[in-house]
Each structure stands twice: as structure tokens, then as C-alpha cells.
Amino acid sequence: xxxxxxxxxxxxxxxxxxxxxxxxxxxxxxxxxxxxxxxxxxxxxxxxxxxxxxxxxxxxxxxxxxxxxxxxxxxxxxxxxxxxxxxxxxxxxxxxxxxxxxxxxxxxxxxxxxxxxxxxxxxxxxxxxxxxxxxxxxxxxxxxxxxxxxxxxxxxxxxxxxxxxxxxxxxxxxxxxxxxxxxxxxxxxxxxxxxxxxxxxxxxxxxxxxxxxxxxxxxxxxxxxxxxxxxxxxxxxxxxxxxxxxxxxxxxxxxxxxxxxxxxxxxxxxxxxxxxxxxxxxxxxxxxxxxxxxxxxxxxxxxxxxxxxxxxxxxxxxxxxxxxxxxxxxxxxxxxxxxxxxxxxxxxxxxxxxxxxxxxxxxxxxxxxxxxxxxxxxxxxxxxxxxxxxxxxxxxxxxxxxxxxxxxxxxxxxxxxxxxxxxxxxxxxxxxxxxxxxxxxxxxxxxxxxxxxxxxxxxxxxxxxxxxxxxxxxxxxxxxxxxxxxxxxxxxxx
Length: 494
Ligand SMILES: [Zn+2]
Fold this sequence. Notes:
Blueprint: H1 10-14, H2 18-31, H3 65-72, H4 76-79, H5 83-92, H6 102-109, H7 112-141, H8 144-154, H9 159-192, H10 200-220, H11 223-233, H12 238-261, E1 268-270, H13 274-286, E2 294-297, E3 308-311, E4 318-322, H14 323-328, H15 331-346, H16 349-383, H17 394-431, H18 434-448, H19 456-462, H20 468-477
Parallel strand pairs: 2-4
Antiparallel strand pairs: 1-2, 3-4
Helix pairs in contact: 2-16, 2-17, 3-6, 3-18, 6-18, 6-20, 7-9, 7-17, 8-9, 9-10, 11-12, 12-16, 13-15, 15-17, 15-18, 16-17, 17-19, 18-20
The chain binds zinc ion.
């Protein structure tokens, strides 16, 4: 991902999808699987099962977002919607004037309004998982979860049916209980800060669609039924079985995401602008990536933010540019963004993410088993079930995974920032577009209202991309080719 997409909506986390979230959310920073909404800063968090997020965002960049970027970017013309013409002359522009102080620019662009937005999102980054855990505890201690199980048992004898019915009730309850926070995070603040003007009805429709996707993947497919089978059969070693199952589930999820899930939420097409398309295909071919793997996605109805990402696996792997990026960035900036994404593609970051999550899942499931065993022993009476393999334990499972994922986040972020740096370096080695890269970061910060220079503790806990000030400094200074050295990540003809 070029920038951090939205965190998953709380509903997704606190609901059953947290299982998949664990899988992909952890991979998310690296993989940027979903064109998920456009949430907080610039990290990327996605899940095979977390569909194109409740993209907060909304429409064509103008009103609120434009002033920032126009004010600060050296080439404000490029930032306006009619970029085609602006792009064309920008690329032909003669020798640039003495290098501007891009770091000062990105800082100056961080208006009080953007700071308020960024701070709110940072706070939500902590509030949201905690809220999800509280929702899980509420379902347990109120006896609702046990009641859902009783209803499910009354509906049929087959375990498949029982789990499916339980899931529908559980996801519906999760939707209702987390709605206030999901609405605030995904809709209200995006509108307040001029980052979206999507209507309430289409936004709500997306949210409901996500619930249906959750039911389809976890109930109908049926991943939850499959996950609970080893819990019943191997009371002490089930975590090992689930950890082993993570790899194939993640591979399948990542493979299917761009072809099955993402199109349910957004429209994907080949690049529309034939000239730009030619440039990008040429760049992709130089990077050793088939040009047909590049798509654009219509996000402008949902958000004004800009982004791009790599998703899929094997035959479905692709690079996707948000149409907002195409509209608001100059051609040379877009080419650098593509170079960054091509870095993810060529450096096998998706694979790395899947492998990393699979390993991590073994640790998390092991801890999860230990915590849940103790919790059930202590509160089984109050919760209305005595065995962990009782489907009524699902809120406990999800809440525990959410807690552990939260604790693991600094490590996952550290890894993600590392691969993002590699992708930036690859993009520069491929394009040699240092100036365009710095401008792209400035535009990204202004348009998405990102804090370019967050405090260290916040970087550690929430940032899965390096801070933009660091990325700009790197873009300005990284030129191994000027000293005649080969690239570290990209070598022509390889
Ligand atoms: Zn990236």
C-alpha cells in the first residue's frame, strides 16, 4: 500500500471476522489486501475477509481537501481534478528550480484541522479494539451468546446449521452494538473533515453488505465450523491445528480477495487514460511485471483520499490505483506511486506477509488457548457454557484474538515499516524520480490529512508506514545510481 488504509471497522473486528482479521489484519500492513476504506493515516490493514472497507471517503477532491494540497505542493495545478493537461506539461517541464524544502512544506501543510482529524483517528486506533473486546464481554456476561446458541440448537440438529444460525445472530448483534462507533469512525468524522460526501444510504448499504460477506465466508463456507472441529477433537492441541490451517486459508483468501470480494464493493477496470496507461505498462514491463496486472478502482464516490495497493496472490495478483490518485496526482507522481507498488510486487511482500502471519498465528493461537482455558474455568457458570468447543464461546475467542493482535501490533508495524521502506527504495531505483516522490508524499499528507511527523510512541504503536517526513527525506537523498552503484532492490534486466 502506498499509504495506510483505514483500520477495519470496529464491527468487523469485534465480529467473527476478527478471525480473518487476525489472519489478514496482521498481514495487512504488508499486504494491503483490500482497497479498504480510507481511514487513518497511511498504514495498511486489511483482511482477505474484510472487503473494501466502509470507505469513509467520498468524492472529487475539492472543497476541504484541495486547499491544503494546492497551497503547499509546488505544482498546485497538478492537484486539481483536471490533471490530464497539467500532467502533460509537468512532465515536459524544463529543469526544475532549486530544490524546495519539502519537509518544511509538508509540516506547513499540516493544518490545525488536519491535526484534529489525525489525532481523532489515532485515538480511535486504541479505542476501537478495546470497544470490540468490551462488546465481546457484554455478549458473554449478559448471557446473550448462550441464548443465541440455544436458539441455534432449536433450529436444527446438524452442526453446520447450528453454527450458521448462531453466526447470523452473533454478527447481527455485533453490527448493532458496534454501530455507533462504526458510524462515527467510518462516516461522521470523514464528513466533518471534508474527506467524504458519500450519502448515508450507500454507506449503510456497504456496511450491511460486509455483514453478508461475513456470513457467507464464515457461516456458509463454513470457516467457523471448520475452526471449531479441532477444538472439540483436540482439547489441548487445537491451537496447533488452527495455526497449521492459517496458511492455506490465507493463501486462498488472498487469492480470492481481488476477484471475488473486492468487486462486490467497487468497480475495477483497466486503466482508462490510454497515455498514462502506456507509461505505466512500460514501467511495469521494466520492473518485470505484466502490464495487464494494473487496474484502477473507482473510489471517488466514497472518499477524497488517495492511495494505491497490491493485492491478490499468484494468478490474481495485481496493482490497483484509486481513481482519486489518478485524478489528483501528476503523472510523474503517479509513476513513482506505481514504482512503490511494483516494489511490493517484485519483492514478494505478499508472500512474506502470508508467511509472517502464519508463524505469528501459531504464537497467538497458543496464547489464546491458554487464556481461554482459564477464562472458561472461571466464568463458565455465568456464561452458560462449560466447553470451549461450544459455539457460544465465539465472543471469547474473538475478544481474546483482538486483545492479542493489539499487543502484537508494534511488532507487526515494525515489520511493515521495513517493507514499506524497501518499496520506496525500489520505486526510486526504478523511476529515479526523487522530486516526484517527495511531491507525491506531500500531496498524500495534505489530501489524506496525515500527521507527517508523529511522536515516536505513536509510530511504534500505530504506524505501519514510515512517517512522511522520513519518507520525504529518503526520497530527496536516495540516489545510488548517481554514484554509479547498482540498485539494492531493482536492477534493470533482471
Ligand atoms: Zn506500500
